[in-house]
Amino acid sequence: MLAPVTMPDPEPTVRHAATVLPDEAPLDRPGLLWLAVLALPAGAVTGLVCALFRMALDQADLLREALIAWAQPMGAPGLAALVAAGATATVIAAWLVRRFAPLASGSGIPHVEAVLRERAEPAGLGLLPVKFLGGTLAIGAGLALGREGPSVQMGASIGTTTARLFRRPAGESRALLAACAGAGLATAFNAPIAGAVFVLEELVQRFEHRTAIAALAASAAAIAVARLLLGDAPDFALPPIPAPEAAAHPLFFALGAAMGLLAVGYNASLLATLALFERVPVLLRAALVGGAVAAIGFAMPALVGGGDALTERSLAGVEDLALLPLLFLVRLALGAASYAAATPGGLFAPLLVLGAQAGLMVGALCRDALPGLAIEPAGFALVGMAAFFTGVVRAPITGIILVTEMTANVALLQPMLGACFLAMLVPTLLRSAPIYESLRLRVKR
Asked: Phi and psi at residue 146, in whole multiples of 5°?
């Protein structure tokens, strides 16, 4: 008789080595308690710093608008002065990064992810003033960059420093770093749930109990402090957008597919722009981008900067639809060039602008083609934000919750789910890597 064959136990699911965190150590109550206790003050400090950063950006925007208003009546001399001011501010921002904290270049989120995967060293508090001042100068000069990237990286540096001060082990240090990074995102967009979800879905890409506990604590503390300074109104004050009728739901699947294709193009164009600009010395690159952005701001002031006003106009459905394709293309090019300038600044806010504009264009086309469905283009703009974010970042839950918290609108959750499904499926089938995965591979140890 043949001996029975013993089959080996099935192996655990294999994940790609480049995207998996070190295994989580067994939870112990004292360590978990330490983590929970430390996450609260670290999150509160993150909320304070990032709220002050938002306030600084608001003042920088007002200063830029005042300079443009002063320069426009002067004609060519005013344009020259504005271009010089924009180039100078951007060069200073790039010089600060190059001289004092090279890790502060760009968004900072790819660096945080590289640290969590043990591909890079964490940044201490020395990064914080460079990120704060450099981000204020760059975004204040009109570069199409977001406040969330600097906020996430500043939060991560606060989490790292807290863990070092209290000599916490590696697992707790990583959890605290990720939690405070999420707290930075929560403060940047007044979106505490999205901040906590972002930690698990994008930063660590799996559910960890201690990281979840730390993320919830840090985001709760951060938003409590931030709202003392910023208030608790959603970022976009909008009239209610009604839920679409059932017959219009398939159109949101089509919107999601379109956003997925657009995301593939966006990611490719951003990476191509980075590769092209790397041939130019950093400070010259910064001067060229800063001067060009200032010139655009002289002609079209509303097009430069982080873009919140543009997003709000799209969500309100008040954009000039005849000009919208041109505005979209300008913002698309402006965002890629701004990110390549090697100054501090993130991608989220510019992504939301493009998603809202593209969604509004699709909604307007659907309304004109199908007048019997009573389509509201503003609803397509809102769903387009979440779908485009999903296609680019590949973090659908974060995108859905982020847009919902920023707009205080829950009526479009169902069509948003369908759109995000297609927006994630299309680039995945086309083997287009998520943008932060591609950018993380560029981070040097």
From this structure: -100, 160
Span between the terminal Cα atoms of the chain, in Å: 59
Give the phi and the psi of residue 10 in degrees, each rounded to 5: -60, 140
Mean pLDDT within 172-192: 95
Q: What is the mean pLDDT of residues 375-381?
A: 93
Indicate the pLDDT class of residue 428, thresholds 50, 70 and 90: very high
Q: Which residue, chain included where needed, has tokens 């394709």? A: 325
- Tens of pLDDT, residues 297-332: 999 999 999 999 999 999 988 888 889 999 999 999
Q: Which single residue is written with the structure tokens 């509303």?
A: 302
List, in order of start, the domains of the chain with CATH numbers. 30-230 (1.10.3080.10), 246-440 (1.10.3080.10)
Q: What pTM, to 2 d.p., does this model score?
A: 0.90
Q: Centre a 10 Å sphere on the Cβ of residue 290 and count the other Cβ atoms it contains.
A: 30
Listed in sequence order, the residues at least 6 apart from 10 whose beta carbon sits closer than 8 Å to its beta carbon are: none
Greater pLDDT, 3 or 63? 63
pLDDT range class, residue 27, cuts 50, 70, 90: low
Out of 28-37, 155-164, 201-210, which region has the weakest mean confidence (pLDDT)? 28-37
Phi–psi pair at 346, nearest 5 degrees = -105, 180
Model confidence at 188: pLDDT above 80: yes
Range 203-228 average pLDDT: 94
